[in-house]
Amino acid sequence: MLPGSRRKSAPRLRLLVQGLFHRGSRPLHIVTFSVYNTAIAIHALATSTMADSTKPEHLNTSALGTRAYWDSAYTTERTNFALDPADEGTVWFSDAGAEERMLAFLESLADVDVLHKEADGEVAQGEEESDFALPTRFLDLGTGNGHLLFALREDGWEGEMVGVDYSAESVRLAEEIKASKGAEYEDVRFREFDILKGEAEKEWLGEGFDVVLDKGTFDAISLSDEKDAQGRRVAEGYREAVEKLVKRGGRFLITSCNWTEEEVKGWFEGSELEYEDRAEYPSFTFGGKTGSSVCTLCFKRR
Ligand SMILES: C[S@@+](CC[C@H](N)C(=O)[O-])C[C@H]1O[C@@H](n2cnc3c(N)ncnc32)[C@H](O)[C@@H]1O
């Protein structure tokens, strides 16, 4: 057994369990998942051996790291949505209020004019320098049902939004949900795109996005047993892939349940991304260590 592999199998189970309780938005499942998730998080906290900001060890692989798993999951969610338009599918980490915490964190950046919910300022006349700011552009990586982007729009963010996912069924589901909504959602766009293998086209990438979002996607990628051209687990190439999508000076906001805060820093702090801040979650203490079952960290691209 590899050093630390016992500790690593716990977080894998965390995402796996939510996968098993895939209709996770239903109350019974939320309760079941919450209890289990907290127990596993305590285990992870108690057995963590990782030094601060070192590169974390890999997780054990699982079906949640495969495209086939997600295609099948979103096929089911499309059927459910067709039968009941109120059922938009799983909102990942809803028991931890992750989406709300990400929204609140982004709002706090808008409050200090780092981000802009709508076009802001005056257009310059003649030679004068303009202080005009376009509304923040968002990219959601592994968008699933697109819920996070729809929630941002509902919250008054008016900028361009793109959701990408390697599952064609996810893109179909997100488009179907969008079609059931009002005209203000029309310019939320969804694309089939493999973050690790795709080459982003200028047409939708532009100069990069002001904010790139990830809720549960790196968690899923961390469970893949695929190797890249250099023979590494594909999770190793994720940071580099993300860096290319964030505009210089832009933000990468990631939420994870499979990795602790220090582990997320270990994965993403590097040449282009620097750790900036974190969203607050209720924490618990076990065996003298303090942590939470989900974390949301913000990195700024240099
Ligand atoms: C745990 S789900 C999270 C979905 C969504 N972000 C949410 O919070 O509801 C992980 C998502 O990542 C997508 N995904 C996994 N690997 C990917 C890759 N290499 N490129 C694009 N999407 C990927 C899956 O299809 C799935 O939709």
Low-confidence stretches: 1-13, 16-52
Range of strand content? 15-25%
Q: Count of DSSP helices? A: 10
Tell me the strand order in the biggest sheet.
3-2-1-4-5-9-6
Percent helix: 25-40%
How confident overall, as mean pLDDT? 84
Count the E strands.
9
Largest sheet: 7 strands, mixed
Give the overall shape.
globular
Structural class: alpha/beta
Separation of the first and last Cα atoms: 39 Å
Bound molecules: S-adenosylmethionine
Give me the strand/helix succession: HHHHEHEHEHEHHEHEEEE
Provide a descriptive summary of the structure in words.
Pfam families: Methyltransf_31. 37% of the residues lie in helices and 17% in strands. The protein has ten helices and nine strands. Strand 1, helix 5 (147-154) and strand 2 form a beta-alpha-beta unit. Helix 3 packs parallel to helix 6 (168-179). The longest helix is centred in the first third of the chain and has 21 residues, at 27-47. The structure holds S-adenosylmethionine (SAM). S-adenosylmethionine (SAM) is lined by residues 70, 91-92, 142-144, 147-148, 164-167, 170, 194-196, 215-217, 220-221. S-adenosylmethionine binds at residues 70, 91-92, 142-144, 147-148, 164-167, 170, 194-196, 215-217, 220-221.
